[in-house]
Amino acid sequence: MERLPERQAGPEYRPPGTAQAAARRTQSVRASLGAGQQNLADVAEFTAWLIATDQRRTGLADRLSAQFRGEVELAFRAWEATSPLTNPSAFTEKRTSHLRPTISLPQEASRSAC
């Protein structure tokens, strides 16, 4: 059995591995914030497209949809192929195959601190 290090006096003491866990947590938070910001940008672009489409400004709507990021464009084209603006049954099928559980960096950071 591995012997744990003796606890040292003082408020600066940190168990081994704490710095690595903190670094991973920081990396995770940065990645999460970046992903959240990208999601907001994607939603804003799609909303702008939707407004332009509703106002029958097809030139603007086409320019906006041409600027979607690759993965958003792929999902948008698949969604658009169902004719959702004119086909009421297009909204009845739920598509959730892209939602799968993944391990997140905060969980990894917590594990490495132990």
Strand content: under 5%
Counting H and I runs of at least 4 residues, what is the number of helices? 4
Radius of gyration: 23 Å
Q: Could you say which overall geometry the principal axes of the C-alpha atoms support?
A: elongated
* Mean of residue pLDDT values: 79
Give the class from helix and strand content and strand pairing: mainly alpha
For the largest beta-sheet, the strand count, sense and barrel status come to: none
Helix-strand pattern, N to C?
A: HHHH
Record keyword descriptors for this entry.
114 residues; mainly alpha; 4 helices
SSE order and pairing:
Elements: H1 18-54, H2 58-66, H3 70-80, H4 105-112
In short:
The chain has four helices and no strands. It is mainly α and 114 residues long. The protein has a domain at 40-84.
Describe what you observe in this structure.
The protein has 114 residues and is mostly helical. It has a domain at 40-84. It has helices at residues 18-54, 58-66, 70-80, 105-112. The protein is elongated.
